[in-house]
Structures are given as structure tokens and as C-alpha cells.
Amino acid sequence: MRIKRNTRYISMFLTAVMVAAIALSCFGVQKAEAVGEVQGIKETWYYVRNADTGYYLDVAYGIDANGANVIQYSFNGDYNQQWRPVLQSNGYYILETRCSSASPKRVLHVNGTNVDIASPFWPGSQEFEILRMSHLALDPTRQGLYRMRWTGNYDNIASQPGNGGNVFISTSATNSYWSFIPVEKGYATLYTTNIPQDKFVFGSINTTGSNAPFQTDVTAMGYSSRVKTNFDPSGSYQDPNSNKYKYAADIISDLKSSQIWVHNAHAGSGVMAYHCKSASYSVPTLQIGVKAASGLPPDVPFHNISTFPYNSLASCRVFISLGCESAMSTSNGNLIDSAYLKGAHSAIGWTTNGTPTQTNDWLNRFMVYSKNVKTVEEAVTYANTPSSLLIAKRSGEYAIGDKKQVLYCP
Questions:
Q1: Are 74 and 55 in contact (CB under 8 A)?
Q2: Torsion sign (Cα): 321, 324, 327, 333
Q3: Which CATH topology does 16-21+184-389 take?
């Protein structure tokens, strides 16, 4: 059944694929419309990190005054590195700086070709189109990253090389790709399973070996940990038939509110399965994905992630489904693609099967490296180092969305 100022995944797989969504755009840009709400972007505080240089968008010296220059600088977590995108009625964004005590707050501002901050009274110099680069971008290494284009002439916000490099408006794409990294830490959620030998047709399945390491690592990074085995580690859920809709609501709510989401349990092509503690584990209590598994009783609820509201997973920094074949495409689409399209900054899935030992090990390695202030890309590479977990490329492409996303900024 294959089935920080902020001081801040039984039988599964042998090979893995990190996949982000496919968005059809001849320019390689994925967004809702020509202008408007952009996938993965919410009205909250972010660190904005240049994907090429690794430096952060920064109000120089934290000066709270009109004309204060904007540069890129190494991470310090202070308010002058925190920015809030605010969607305007015309579909463009302004970016407020948190170092501003003015009301309203000063915002990113174009002055000639230079970028500084100013009071938000000159929309023609302060509005930007934020573009999320799609899976079909001409340069696939840019997928999931963002470009900010000034609406005055649609040139890019870019930075000059080096620590302290000036930020300016450029016609070039060089140093113009950015990651939006949430300032505040939220929930990190892990779902695992533990089913005895006599309760499942495919034998015993136990992925709870990832529970304690995951909880330790995400707590150390400042997240609020939620670890649930067979839905509820207390075992209080005993009646799946009467409570399965409550379970579904709980799990979907957890998914939409998580910054790190990991499903380390049964899966199949396009679907994640969930069991609960009950007298019988022989079938899942519910499914979430893009296509329901075949051969299950008709009363097992299925919730299609493709029908979730637009941008409902924008809080999610990384979505990981470690179950068997979770990244396999189906006639209804692809589970990992769908999570990415609903706003997850990066999404990871698998194309074949494996063991709980392998999935636990992969997740433990991924989280340990993330805790060392590494990007998702670096953590994936480290997690895939053992030969039994070598990465596989689905459809010939290596794609995990925003590979420059950082889960931990100390």
C-alpha cells in the first residue's frame, strides 16, 4: 500500500527525487496573473537573501531616514534586514523595512538607478512586481527564486558583488534572484507511523525512529515541534470511523500552518496515507494527495491538494513526503508539484520504494545539515550522500523549488 533582531520522513524508497512544480509560462515565470498575489509570498516579515551572493537586503547602518542607502550585507538578523511585502490594490508590492519607526513605515525606493528607503508617498518609485521563477525557467537552477522588478521600467533589483555591495536597478539578470526567508519560526510537523505485523497486509511498519531526532533538531532551530504517530502519539484517537473527518481537518490544518512539513509514512503515486490508532490498521483512515489510491473502501476520505485555496501553503519553507513513489506523476498530476504550486517554497518527494531505516536516516541527515545554517540544496546533497540514497532525476530534471531557502538563521 504505497500508499532572529531575532537570535533564531512502510516500505518506501531506494532513490529520491526533489521536485518542485511545473508552471507553464513561456518566460519561465510562475505567478497568479500579470500582477497580483504571488505564490509563497505573504504579508509577513522576511529576510531577503541574494541567491547568487548569499548576502541579505540591508538598510545600511540601520539608518531610519529618507534616502538611507540599501546594500547587501552578511546576515545579522537586525531589523534593517527585515522586509515585509505588502500587496497593493493595483496588484503590485511595496516592501516595508522593519527598521523604520515612522508611521507608515518607510519602504524600498528607487532613486535614479540607486535603491534606498523613503516614506511611502511616491508609488511610481516604490512599487514592484514580484515574480516567482517557474520549473520551466530557462535556467532551471533559478526555479522557486524571486525577481523584484521596479514598475517604472521593469528592471530588476540587483546587487553589486561583495559584502556591502550596493543595491541598484539593473537591466541584467546578474545577482537579481532572491529568496524570501520568514523571520519568525512557526511549526515543524512530522507524521510517522507504527503498525504491528498482524495489522497490515504488507507487514509491520515503524518510522518512529525519526521522531526524537526531528524534535531535537527543529526545537534547536527555534521551531515549535509537532510530532504525531498514527495521528496522535497519546493514542487517544480510537474510533476512525466516527472521527475520520476530524482527523482530516486536523491534518490539513497542520499542513497549512507548518513551515516544515514531513510525512514519513505510507504513500503511493500522488497520495499520502494516514492511519490512526484503532483496533485495525489494515487500511488508511484518510488520504491527501492528487489521486486516491485504488483498492480502498469507498468511505476512506480523500482530500485533493490541488483544490486547496490559492497560496494556502505559502507558510511552508519545505514540504517533504518520504513515502513510496510520492513524487510519481499520475493522470491527475503530481503531489509534490501541487504542494509547490500551492505556495510551498520547496518540495521534496520520492520515485521508488525503500525501508523505514533509509527514510529515517535521510530525514535525520537533512535536518542535521539544515541546523548547520545550510540551504535546502546543501542539506539535500548531504542527506543523499550514502550510495543507497543517491538522488534520482524525475523527467531528467533536478528540481526542488527554492534550493537557496535557509531553514535556520541563528
A1: yes
A2: negative
A3: Rossmann fold (3.40.50)
Residue ranges of the domains in the chain? 16-21+184-389, 45-182
Q: What is the mean pLDDT of residues 260-269?
A: 89
DSSP states of 199-228: G-TT--EE-GGGHHHHHHHHHHTTPEEEEE
CA–CA distance, 311 with 62 (Å, rounded to integer):
32
Q: Where is pLDDT greater, at 171 or 295?
A: 171
Q: What is the pLDDT of residue 389?
A: 46
> For residues 381 and 38, is the Cβ–Cβ distance under 8 A?
no
pTM of the predicted model as reported, rounded to 2 decimal places: 0.85
Count CB atoms within 10 A of the CB of residue 218.
Answer: 27
346: how many CB neighbours lie within 10 A of its CB?
Answer: 31
pLDDT of amino acid 135: 52
Q: Work out the pLDDT band at 81, boundaries 50, 70, 90.
A: very high
Instruction: Kindly give, in sequence order, each residue whose CB lies less than 8 Å from that of residue 142, ignoring residues fewer than 6 positions away.
Output: 28, 51, 133, 177
Alpha carbon distance 334, 273 (integer Å)? 15
For residue 29, what pLDDT is reported? Answer: 39
pLDDT in tens, 340-365: 999 999 998 887 777 888 889 989 99
Q: Model confidence over 16-45: pLDDT tens digits?
A: 333 333 233 333 333 333 368 999 999 999
d(CA 270, CA 336): 8
- 83-107 burial, b at 16+ Cβ within 10 Å, e below that, comes to bbbebeeebbbbbbbbbbeeeebbb
CA distances to 33, 76, 299, 368, 373 from 364, rounded to whole Å, are 39, 27, 35, 6, 15
For 380-400, write each residue's pLDDT tens digit. Answer: 888 877 654 444 433 323 346
Handedness of CA 254, 256, 258, 262 (dihedral sign): positive
SS3 category, 56: strand
**Does pLDDT of 138 surpass 90?**
no
For residue 158, the Cα-to-chain-centroid distance in whole angstroms is 23
* CB neighbour list of residue 356: distance below 8 Å, 6 or more residues apart: 10, 12, 205, 206, 207, 209
Separation between Cα atoms, residue 318 and residue 320, nearest integer Å: 6
Sign of the CA dihedral running 376, 381, 382, 383: positive
| Residue tagged 535536518 (cell numbers) | 367
CB count in 10 Å sphere of residue 78: 16
CATH number of 45-182: 2.80.10.50
